[in-house]
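Entry 14. Ran structure prediction on the chain below.
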Amino acid sequence: MEKTNATYYDSEKKFNTNDYECERKLKMNFNNEKYEQNQQNQQNQMNGHEEAWLEAYGFNTFFMKQWSALDQDIKTNGLIGRVIADFGQKLRVAINEGECLANRPVELKQMKSGIATGDWVVVKPLNDGEEAIVLHVFQRFSKFSRAAAGVEVKEQIVATNIDTVFLAQSMNKDFNLRRMERYLVAAWDSGATPVILLTKADLCEAPEVYIEQMASIAPGVEVIALSSVSGMGLSQMTKYVTKGKTVAILGSSGVGKSTLVNALMGHDVLKTQSIREDDSKGRHTTTHRELLLLPGSGLILDTPGMRTLALWDAENGEGMERIFGEIEGIIKECRFSNCTHKSEPGCAIRAALRSGRLEEKKWINWQKLQKEIKFIESKANKKERALHKQGAKSNTRKNISVYEVD
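Output, structure tokens:
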């Protein structure tokens, strides 16, 4: 082969290195342009109509940063959506084009807990967009959880990515300060801001008495008296449901949650039933958690009435300190650090109970919640040890099997 002026000759063709360099640069430019075009396409997904949709449903900078960091394959093949209803194995997801049903994924790498109503996801549409599969779940900024009912210790997620949690009680026989203390602990632990709603004000002769009592156990929490019939208090409530903000409404059956949602929507979108007159007990109307977009404002999550609310992971949250901080402070005044508050001399708790500084019912409720927290924590640790032991045995069996084969 003869070499002349940086040009290579063979029997088949003549190929100039200058031409080769030009072709290489053209390919590089083409690939760069293609990459930039893909990036622009992704950016376009955040512009125009979709940007308005995302903003309306609460997709803020917290989620935008996560979207930017996702693998290009996920962003290319998937669409951003928000879970607006949970039917068990099926999830209804709102996307820019409308809605689709997605199967609940068995496992995703980034999932530490199951998908819940309010979650932001990336879905891949199937069958002309009517169905979809979940490719990714975004990290949450808030999560309201409780310990699931039953023998097994596990978390049940009630709502995610909520800015404000409305805690509803009606001003009748349902009114219970001790139950509200429990709800407030869970609400502060969720990362959302709690607001107390006292419903059925039109049926109450002295709502100010209920408001005063509730405010006494909830420092820093707004208490709103409401009536869906007269419209009383609705304007105070709506200031929390602004564009792009999500609120959840929680409480027992029959407190008027669905009625309030209908009042905010401006028409009936949820079924309602009256309470039983003999005991003020409610009837279950809402059967699943559903996220609704309010006209011209934010989103509201209606939930089924909760008979019980067992605290979850409360030992690691701020709720107990916020609601029972006074008790924690008094305990530090005890003469002995290991005081059981029963018969020890210099017990500040017993002194506070005698003087009226500490309400006995609040002290009893604090003790009850502490026992519950420790019990759940103990069961969770026991379960974790059992799973760890089971995994160790499994690994041992695998090692023995490998050894015998060798």
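The first helix runs from residue 17 to 44. Will compare against last week's run tomorrow.
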